[in-house]
Design goal:
The structure is a single chain. With about 180 residues, the chain is of the alpha+beta class. It folds into 2 domains: about 60 residues; about 70 residues, Nucleotide Exchange Factor Grpe, Chain A, domain 2. The chain is about 60% helix and about 20% strand. It is built from 4 helices and 6 strands, in the order αααββββββα. The strands form 2 sheets. A 3-stranded antiparallel beta sheet has the order 1-4-5. Helix 2 packs antiparallel against helix 3. The longest helix has about 60 residues. The chain is elongated, with a radius of gyration of 39 Å.
């Protein structure tokens, strides 16, 4: 009988230890949960701040090129003003030519370049054909005239060239097809 009261005492102290351990684990769990909530709030704030910064970058990302283009606008306005005050068209044309060269340099600096097309084979990824010119001795689908320049930006076509294409007359093509 004496063994049973001691077992109860041992069980009682074990129960107290387990109760303390449980309370300690609950406390640690609550601390972890609290830290996690703070971290989640910090993450949400960081995400919002990054979204605002990205919007700001998008909004003003082309500011440097706009500033350079404003110089071009100023020069064109001066050319128009001097054209009204001058009888010589030559000075106006020179001013416009210089301004165009400056604009071309700005575009080149940004990776924009014209598409070379006259005398080259028609390429539907770079050209839009608006007319066909029939000629007996023509190489098939060769660009003979550029109506509007096309441009690439770092290897990507941003505006296709509008061109006129030289082709053999339809009657010549029909004869070649019949002979085959």
């Amino acid at each position: 009988m004496s063994d049973k009261p001691e077992e109860k005492i041992e069980s009682g102290s074990e129960l107290e230890k387990l109760t303390e351990a449980l309370a300690e684990e609950k406390k640690r769990s609550e601390e972890c949960l609290t830290r996690m909530k703070y971290m989640q709030a910090d993450f949400e704030n960081l995400k919002k701040r990054m979204d605002r910064q990205m919007e700001e970058v998008k909004k003003y990302s082309n500011e440097h090129i706009i500033i350079e283009l404003l110089d071009i606008v100023d020069e064109l306005e001066m050319a128009i003003k001097s054209g009204h005050n001058s009888d010589s068209q030559e000075n106006v044309i020179q001013g416009i030519d210089m301004t165009l060269k400056k604009l071309t340099k700005i575009l080149e600096k940004e990776g924009v370049s014209p598409i070379e097309c006259v005398g080259r084979p028609f390429d539907p990824t770079k050209h839009n054909a608006v007319a066909r010119i029939e000629k007996e001795d023509a190489e098939e689908c060769t660009v003979v005239e550029e109506v509007r320049k096309g441009y690439t930006m770092r290897e990507k076509v941003i505006r296709p060239s509008i061109v006129k294409v030289m082709v053999k007359p339809l009657k010549s093509q029909e004869k070649v097809n019949q002979n085959e």
